[in-house]
Amino acid sequence: MKILAIDDQQLVLMPLAKRLKDIGYNVFTSSNPEEALLLYATFKPDLLIVDINMPKTSGIEVIKQIKSNYDEPKPIMVLSGNTDKNLIVQAFELGVRDFMKKPLSLDEVSARVKSLIGLPEQPQKLMEEREVILQHRCVGVVIPCYNEEKRLKSAEFLKFLHQNTGYHVCFVNDGSTDGTLEVLQNLRKGRENYISIYNCEQNGGKAEAVRQGLTYMASFEDLDYVGFLDADLSTDFADFDDLVKTIETSGFQIVHGSRISRMGANISKESARKLISKIINFLISSILGMSFRDTQCGAKIMRKELVPIAFQKKFLTKWLFDVEIFMRMRQHFGKEEAQKNICEQPLKRWVHEDGSKLSYSDSLKIGFQLIKIYWNYRLKPFFTQTSFSKSFSGARMMEVRDEVPLN
Question: Rounded to an integer, what is the distance from CA 276 to the centroid of its chain?
Fold first, then answer.
C-alpha cells in the first residue's frame, strides 16, 4: 500500500517516512507542494498525508486541487501544528478523513494510518523502542568542538536525536589537533539528514565557532529556531528542550539558560568558580545596564531573525561573546525593548565537566575583556556621537555666520 507525505520541513518528513516504511508501507515524500501534485498523479497513493502550514502553497490548496482533479480521491490525513478552529473545519469540509495536531507520537500516527487504509500487504513487526514524538517546529543546534575526541558523548547525542524529531545538530570542528574530526565524521555517517559538520581549518575560539555555525544554520529554510550548546553537555538536552518550549510559546527573541542554585535543581560548580562567577556577573550586569543572574551558560536558543543582528560581525572577545550578543541586541532594539526580548530561564541541571577549556588564568583575563566590551559598545559610540554633534554644531555656526549680511 502506498502513502504520499507532504511537508515543507524535512526533519518532520524523515522520521514519519521511516516509521511507515518500517511497518511495511511504500512511502514517497515531498517538501514541495507543486512537485507533490505531480507525484500524486504518477504514484497514485492509497493515502495522502499533508501539512497545512507550508510557505508557498498551503496544504488546504493542495487538498482543493486534488479534490477538483480527481473524481474519487483517496483518503487524506492532515498533520499540522495549526490549531485554528476555522482551518480545521475547512479541512473537514473539503473531505479530510483525519486531522492530527502536532506534536504527537509516531505510534498514534501509525495507528490512525492503519485505521484509514488497513495493514500493508506484508506488515513488518517493529522492534520495541521508546516513544518518538513528531514535533511541529524544527530546531538547529550548534555544538562548538575543540579537541573533544575523548570527551564527546556521542551516545547521548544519538539517543536524543533518535527520540526527538525536529532537531538538526551542527558540530563545528574548531581547528582541533586531535581526532575530533574523525569522531564527528563517524557520528554523522548514515545520519547526514540531521547531523552536519562545519569544519574550521584553524582554531578561532568558541565565539567564532558559534558565530560561523549559527550563520550557517540560519540558511536552512526548514528551521524555525537556532541555538548552541556546549559539547560536554554540562547543560543537557532535557534543559535545552525546555528552552525551546519557552521560545515557541512566547514572543522572546532569545531564551538563555541560567545556572541559578535553587531547591530541586542540580547546579554543580567548584567553590572558586562560584566566587569568580558572582563577581563577573555583577560586572556584566553593570556594563550591560540590564539585570542578569548568569549570562555565561553555554545554552541559548533564538529566532533565526536574530542571527544577522547579533552574529553578522566577528566578536571582540573569545569567551564573553554572550555579553556581546546582548550588547548588540541593546544597540539594535534599544535597552527597554532588548530586555523584553530576552528571557533568562533557570536550568534544572548544570554540572561542571573536567577538561573545561576555560582555565583560571582565562577567568582572570575576563576583567580586561569586559573593559574592551564596555569601551567598544558603550563609551566609543558615545564619544563618537558627541564629537560628531560638536563638529556638526561648529559647522552650522560657521554657515550661519557666513549667511549674516555685512552692514
Answer: 30
Return the closest-CA partner of residue 167 out of 244, 256, 53.
244
Residue 88 has pLDDT above 70, yes or no: yes
CATH assignment, 2-117: 3.40.50.2300
- Distance, in Å, from the CA atom of 223 to the CA atom of 220, rounded to the nearest integer, reads 6
pLDDT at position 362 is 63
Question: Exposed (0-12), middle (13-18) or buried (19+): which is 349, by Cβ within 10 Å?
Answer: middle
> pLDDT tens-digit profile of 69-81?
887 778 999 998 8
Question: Can you say whether residue 351 is alpha, beta or left, with left for phi > 0 and alpha for psi between -120 and 50 degrees?
Answer: beta
Secondary structure element (H or E) that encloses residue 36, with its range: helix 33-43
Burial 190-222 (b: 16+ CB within 10 A, else e): eeeebbbbbebeeebbbbbbbbbbbbbbbebeb
**CATH 3.40.50.2300 domain extents, the chain:** 2-117
Distance CA 187, CA 210 (A): 20
Q: Which residue has the cell 548568569?
A: 294
